[in-house]
Amino acid sequence: MKTKLLLLLVLISSISTNAQQTLTLEDCYTLAAKNYPISKQTELIQQKSSYENEILNKGKLPKIDINAQATYQSDVIGFPSTLPGVQPLNKDQYRATLDVNQLLYNGGTIDATAKLKEAQSKTQQQQININLYQLKSRINHYFFSILLLQEKEALLKSKKDLLTSKIKEVQSGVKFGAILPSSEQLLEAEIIKINQQLVEISFENIKLLNNLSKLTFTKIDAETTLIQPLTFSKNTTVTRPEIAFYDLQNEQLEFSKSVISTSNLPKINAFAQAGYGNPGLNMLDNSFQPFYVVGLKANWNVFDWGKTKTDKKVVDISKDIVTSEKETFELNIKMQLEEQDFEIKKLEQLLFSDAEIIQIREKVIKSSDAQLKNGVITSSEYLVELTHLFEAKNSLKAHEVQLAAAKSNYETIQGK
């Protein structure tokens, strides 16, 4: 039972380890969108929008003020003669009031402003989406550059293994005098050259992995296997976040026009004032008295010298500018998609010819291999043909990765 449990734990650990050592392009996109610092602004904008709505809604609640004042006047209202029961007013006067103002109608300014604030928040949120989406291009660059290095490294190691086994054959030929001793040395020098190239690849790979790790905020090292994308869907529909951003900008400008329209509508407020002072409302009663006042107040700016009309014209011009920017962006995207489409077709043609070249080079190297064993050609001549073969294989792998990169770039430009 313990043995079975131990084997199960080892298997789970192995599966977990393998899962951690593989990474797809979509994984990188998801990690970057989730962990990149600017993504934190999403929640902050939502909180900001919530507080702004709360502030606007409080504008519909009664406004309550407490006021108090004490004054001394150089003169007061007087009477030409003394009247019975009427005392002269004091020059020092006192008043404390509780004032309540309730908005009844303001032309819908608060509601229009609330919609404008909501549109502004959506626009800000979409800008974050754009910034996060733009990371995809950088991720594509690092991801496929690493894949290209990994393919090149694998080919170099394969070439090194082949040369190592070939040295053993040459050593046997040298021993029996069929091959010159210099042939072995040339092969050893080529292996040293390959080792140098592997060192260069190793350092370049570490640099690219480090950059990709920083973008995705996850540990990616040389042990991580990057999975090359296999699926590709090609269509002309553009769904870039910038398109939605331009639409939201126009929507925001339209809401701002609504706010402008409400600025000249009448405003109606109800008010009430309760107070205690000396004198009260009766100026002839020279004593502390309670008092109150209630009423309605209306305000209507019937003529603003065409300011509202001009403000709307400014908004319309701003909308035209945004529309122009959107059309320019769509045109540039269309051109980029066409260029990427040509790149894909070119690489597909190159891959077809790569396969043909490799078939020919493999036949040549078989012949050169037999000639080297029999001492007909030197190891230098053999290395020339071997290099040609691995250059062809390297071109094939490079074009495969470049094709995958071109397809991913096409989808990124498209907005997928």
From TrEMBL:
<dbReference type="GO" id="GO:0015562">
    <property type="term" value="F:efflux transmembrane transporter activity"/>
</dbReference>
<keyword id="KW-0472">Membrane</keyword>
<feature type="signal peptide">
    <location>
        <begin position="1"/>
        <end position="19"/>
    </location>
</feature>
<dbReference type="GO" id="GO:1990281">
    <property type="term" value="C:efflux pump complex"/>
</dbReference>
<keyword id="KW-0732">Signal</keyword>
<dbReference type="GO" id="GO:0009279">
    <property type="term" value="C:cell outer membrane"/>
</dbReference>
<keyword id="KW-0998">Cell outer membrane</keyword>
<feature type="coiled-coil region">
    <location>
        <begin position="389"/>
        <end position="416"/>
    </location>
</feature>
<keyword id="KW-1134">Transmembrane beta strand</keyword>
<keyword id="KW-0175">Coiled coil</keyword>
<protein>
    <submittedName>
        <fullName>Transporter</fullName>
    </submittedName>
</protein>
<keyword id="KW-0812">Transmembrane</keyword>
<dbReference type="GO" id="GO:0015288">
    <property type="term" value="F:porin activity"/>
</dbReference>
<dbReference type="InterPro" id="IPR051906">
    <property type="entry name" value="TolC-like"/>
</dbReference>
